[in-house]
User: Fold this.
Amino acid sequence: MQGIQNPTEVATRDGHISWSSPQEPWLIRLNEHFDHGIADERRLHLASLNLTALQWQATIVSGRNCTGIYPLGKGGYNTVFVLEMEGGPDLIARLGLFLWNFVPTLKFSPEETNHRFLCEVGTLAYVRKQTTIPVPQVYHHDVDPNNAVGARYMIMEMIAGPHMGYGWMKISPEARRTLLTEIVGWERQLLNIRFPMSGSIVDEDGTIGPMCLSSRLTSNLRAPHTGPFASSAEYIAGHCRSTQDKYKEQLARGDAGRYTAYAVEWLSLALEGIMGLPEDDGAPVFTFFHDEFGMGHIHVSPTDPTKLIGLIGWEGSHVCPVWDHRNYCIVDVDMFNKVQAEVMDSAEM
Assistant:
């Protein structure tokens, strides 16, 4: 195996970084917006990363030389880089580094964010094994923030195409309908899988562990109320207890709202009622939901916007009661709802 021949990342103390440059038009568009909204403190953190070590790790796990690296985008909890690989195809590196002015990860412990990260690795492996949904393969991951790179990261397959919104307005209504029909088919594959309890997937066999943090919902379950849950009553009670703990902390800090103390008492009464409910009639139905099933995570071919090539953004996805449908597909709502009803009605769930 050859070593890195052309590491293209150079970081200086003032936070300046030089990168290699993307070639594809859709990549250039994303890359051009990367610097927007990055605070100086976050820029210095970015400059402190050892991206040469990241390139070297990509070389090791792929058996091919990593010749360059450039930023692709920044999301709610991660920063994404493209790793240019000799002979192609390129790879993706997702680092647990938030670059906006507001840092949401400060609200969560390293244990919580690491658990969500590892659940995503397990979820991707499970979905690849159990469905035909095209999702990226994870080749390597490391949750230690003190590793050689300087941040939690994963190296994964690159879904090489823009998200569906990139060409949505350029295709015909008939083509949009065809795309949505295929997407509903993906959703149905997930809904057809049944699990013995509610929580998060931790490995390729679908083992259910404690519920990880959602990447989108604000009503996160917090330890020690994260399950797994064997019934709907346990699931609802977990949310009540987690919310009650949050309100009690606000009262203790002195920054509670006017009705917070009342809410704590109300939740206590709700818990008494929930735990006094009779057992479910029949087995509870737990199924899997993608946490952010929307246009930004559905990718199409760079040469054909009517061809789906992958679904990304699985961080925070989890198994929950089938009635808790807060995690729905957000695309073209009116058309999607019509197509969804037709596809779902065409076969028994």
